[in-house]
Amino acid sequence: MLPYGRQSIDNADVDAVVAALGSDWLTTGPRVARFEKDIEAVAGAPAVTVTNGTTALNAAYAAAGVGPGDEVVVTPMTFVATASGAATLGAKIVFADVEDDTANLDPAAVEAVVTPRTRAIGAVDYAGHPADYDALRKISERAGAVLIGDAAHAIGSTCRGRPVGTLADLTTFSFFPTKNLTTAEGGAVASIRPELLERARTYSRIGMVREPAKLRRPDEGGWFYEVHEFGNNYRLPDVLCALGSSQLSRLAEFKAARQRLTARYDELLADVPGLRLPIQREGVDPMRHLYPVRILDGRRREVYDRLRAAGIGVQVNYIPVYWHPVFEDLGYQRGMCPVAERFYAEELSLPLFVDLTDADQDRVVDALRAILIG
To answer: What's an example of a GO molecular-function annotation for this chain (predicted)?
Structure first.
């Protein structure tokens, strides 16, 4: 089965992991700090590493002060963690619809649902294309809310020359194997606001505080620490950070490969009827995580089934979050975000990863053309 996404591991990655395994550090050591600096160089903002993209979101919402009684506005066209990361802190999730062309959070829809209880606004850079953070920033500032960017798809993307980690108050990343780079499991939180990053770091380190200036009892001894607020243990180990730094050294190569394959899909599929291709807005230089096409005329299920039967592992990204039973049981109903639901009914992610060959891509295109054209 040709997968829709897959990691790219080379000998340098293997050597980096082996070296870490032979060192004195397997958990929190010097490679953690190095990887965080390497992320900062790409994201444009200081970062703290965590265990995965889901815990990155939870730590970001915690850093924003999200808690019971707060409302958090998010997109429904995402993995459930974008919403559950705030819901598990006690917040009420408010879903706002998406833009038809990018599937990103629609600022006009956000404006319509913001209230005095809105604590945070969570956008997603769908498929690697940054959301409209300039418009969302104006809304968040008027509301007194923290703007959070879920950039699980978008490390390496820029908008008007600005790295994706500088566009929101807090930005989260995922390093799952299908993402733009991998640490096996892993994630990060970056922030342009030092106080928010420090809150995210403390929360993801079990709430432990060691700095003498912050301790209530600073004279206990060098072993002493305090917990001022509850946190979680989201520490990413040294050995995985070694892999991350090695992967980041190839990020420009990864981006070029994904952009070349995207352009090739654009060319090969341009004349296929019943198919809508993804767009790229002016000023955006995306790291393409997905190649999401839209299958028109109600044929998405047929195309999905026939491509999978042919050994082509297409995927659907994503089920509208409020369709999941955990949200249905809270009273959320289908139909509340019609643009997102229409997008879901048509979306199909074609295989896209760094080591996808032209021959494999031709196979995908030929199979898709055969189904849609006959």
So the answer is: transaminase activity
- CA–CA distance, 227 with 44 (Å, rounded to integer): 30
pTM to 2 decimal places: 0.97
Closest CA to 372 of 242, 274, 253: 274
Which residue ranges make up each domain of the chain? 11-248, 251-373
Cβ-based neighbour number of residue 324 at 10 Å: 14
Q: In this structure, which CATH number among 3.90.1150.10, 3.40.30.10, 3.90.170.10, 1.20.120.140 belongs to the domain 251-373?
A: 3.90.1150.10
In terms of C-beta density within 10 A (0-12 exposed, 13-18 middle, 19 or more buried), how is residue 195 classed? exposed
Q: What is the pLDDT of residues 163-222, one digit of tens each?
A: 999 999 999 999 999 999 999 999 999 999 999 999 999 999 999 999 999 999 999 999
Residue 15: DSSP 8-state: H
- Residue 258 C-beta-side C-alpha neighbours within 13 Å: 34
Residue type, 153: H
Q: CATH topology for 11-248? A: Aspartate Aminotransferase; domain 2 (3.40.640)
Q: Residue 34 corresponds to which amino acid?
A: R
